[in-house]
Design a protein that fits this description.
26% helix; disordered N terminus; Metallo-beta-lactamase, Chain A; alpha/beta; seven-stranded mixed β-sheet; six-stranded mixed β-sheet
């Protein structure tokens, strides 16, 4: 059931030139409006973006590790799987998005293999299996993905053996993994969407080992940056897109960091000032901030930094927001 909030969650509405579809604010601070349930799957076939995790390596209890879901006609496609991914998916399913129920979590695209983006992979392999996922998990990612999944299965070999040989009545193959190591280009297509990977620049990663994704789904174009410093590849993949989900750090907070950390962040991530310039070139209908590095600044401070150079629609994403 749709209902209005003083923050978000409304019928498609024009907001500073952008169409916001089903914006839901979750994880609000004390005293704010409580989280509201997103529109259920029966609302129609429009592709929706669900933020399952907006965090980073810092252990913020309000933000799970990076994970984004695109849900189309009851089917979920995950992009990264940070800590807490399956439980955040369960929370979204409890609010009406049945495509994110555990047995339906069957495909994930990894942007890169940093731990904060992959710590939930073992959870994604095993928990939906225990919850009766019957098909292998499909994992798409850069070189190294196969070794990662093989070693996780090896690490949990005893758990798998006990479950397969014990009293559990349903011994299907849902624990298995099909790993696909990909290069930039079209990496996946089905009747719901097309996924294109593109190379991004993230600190020490060699070309092709850090990726962003462009998703073309039921008339919507969604771009997910992954971790990257400013790159023309994001602009080229997103020109005029509906939703750009992009990482960001506070430019003001950055100035208070040590020279060593400044060198790292400038090479690995995108400042609010840089993101504003990038968005001005890419022209997304909605810019969604995630993987925010606040560096001692508030969410409102970060939004102000972006808005100084970007006049379009922008929100600072929180876990379980829906767009």
């Amino acid at each position: 059931m749709w209902r209005e909030s003083s923050r978000f969650l409304r019928r498609p509405t024009t907001v500073t030139g952008a169409v916001l579809v089903g914006l839901a604010c979750a994880g609000a601070s004390a005293g704010a409006d409580p989280p509201l349930a997103p529109a259920p799957d029966s609302a129609g076939p429009t592709a929706r973006v669900v933020l399952l995790g907006t965090g980073n390596p810092n252990p913020d209890p309000e933000r799970s590790g990076p994970a984004v879901a695109v849900v189309v006609s009851g089917k979920a496609y995950l992009f990264d799987c940070g800590t807490g991914v399956v439980r955040r998916a369960a929370a979204a399913a409890g609010r009406g998005i049945a495509g994110l129920e555990a047995p339906n979590l069957g495909i994930v695209f990894l942007t890169h293999l940093h731990s904060d983006h992959t710590l939930g992979l073992a959870d994604l392999i095993l928990t939906p299996w225990v919850m009766e996922r019957r098909t292998p998990l499909e994992v798409y990612g850069p070189p190294g993905t196969r070794a990662l999944t093989d070693h996780l299965l090896e690490a949990y070999a005893d758990d798998i053996r006990i479950r397969l040989g014990g009293l559990e009545p349903d011994r299907h193959e849902g624990y298995r993994v099909r790993a696909h190591e990909i290069v930039p280009g079209v990496v996946y297509r089905d009747s719901h969407l097309v996924v294109k990977a593109f190379a991004v620049a993230h600190a020490n990663y060699e070309p092709g080992r850090a990726l962003g994704y462009r998703v073309e789904a039921r008339g919507r174009v969604i771009v997910i940056s992954g971790d990257t410093r400013p790159t023309a590849a994001v602009v080229e993949s997103c020109v005029g897109c509906d939703v750009l989900v992009h990482e960001v750090y506070s430019a003001a907070g950055f100035r208070g960091r040590s020279p060593a950390w400044q060198r790292y962040h400038a090479d690995a991530h995108t400042s609010a000032d840089e993101l504003a310039e990038l968005a001005t070139r890419a022209r997304p209908r909605l810019l969604v901030l995630y993987h925010q590095l606040f560096m001692g600044r508030s969410e409102e401070d970060l939004l102000r930094e972006v808005r100084r150079g970007w006049s379009g629609a922008v929100v600072s994403g929180r876990d379980l927001d829906v767009y």
